[in-house]
Design goal:
With about 270 residues, the protein is α/β, with parallel strands linked by helices. Helices cover about 40% and strands about 15% of the residues. Helix 1 runs parallel beside helix 2, helix 3 runs parallel beside helix 4 and helix 4 runs parallel beside helix 5. The N and C termini lie far apart (about 45 Å). Bound molecules: nicotinamide-adenine-dinucleotide.
Length: about 270
Amino acid sequence: MPGRLQNRVALITGAGSGIGLECSLLFAQEGAHVALVDVNEQAVQKTHALIAERYPNVKSLPIKADVSKEANVKDMVDQAVSSFGRLDIMFNNAGIMHPEDDNALNTEERIWDLTMNINVKGVWWGCKYAILAMRKNPTDESKGLHAGGSIINTASFVALMGAATPQLAYTASKGAVLAMTRELAMVHAREGIRVNAICPGPLKTPLLMDFLNTEEKKQRRLVHLPMGRFGEAIEVARGALFLASDDSSYVTGTDFLVDGGLSSSY
Ligand code: NAD
């Protein structure tokens, strides 16, 4: 049976770890050719090697790039299009969280700027160059390919609700990702470009585990999680697959929560 992303071309940022790693493997399993982007070259080469080993029929292209630099973002999209001929799916997933308490009183401008540059500007540029590429996508019925495309931006549950563990710059950056996603979805809907945000809850990935770096901190967070456990990166990747594929053809501008029920709890 053909995969849900057969013949599609996807670019995934943050492909070296966590959600981006799992998503790269899942998209490849579903038949997509994948451009893998990460600022950590070793990590992205590892993802590339895993895909080559597990899914030899899929083409994979590892790219070292820093999404906070516009020239890098333009170049990574250009590389994907020149290697694979088009860009159907853009997953703007790379992001950082300062691994220490970061509240309004103690955060530093340096942390604020770094977080905004990667988490917000990186997503803006990713959207900009993806939209320019997706506008050129020809329809090819024989391969199940159509004009337009799907952009997915990783926000977070903290874009929708207040978290008691202070991460001010991070929270503000994710709110911006969600607001930007909604506006882009409205502006580009009639071009066949869907733009959605995925909002993960707390996950067992290096990003959060470096922050909750003691058993006590982990337990304090677990109290708020209805399922009593952290999410797995693959559980978010499955949500991203839905948003990337034609299964979500009438879904745009949404905040797609994969949070184990956190947003409904009290
Ligand atoms: P992770 O730390 O496991 O992976 C992030 C990857 O992004 C790393 O490989 C890192 O090298 C890469 N990266 C960082 N800065 C980059 C840059 N400037 N350019 C290119 N690549 C860069 O983290 P994760 O948990 O998989 O997080 C992925 C996304 O999910 C982030 O946007 C994060 O904010 C979001 N998120 C995570 C959680 C969670 O609990 N882990 C919850 C909500 C949202």
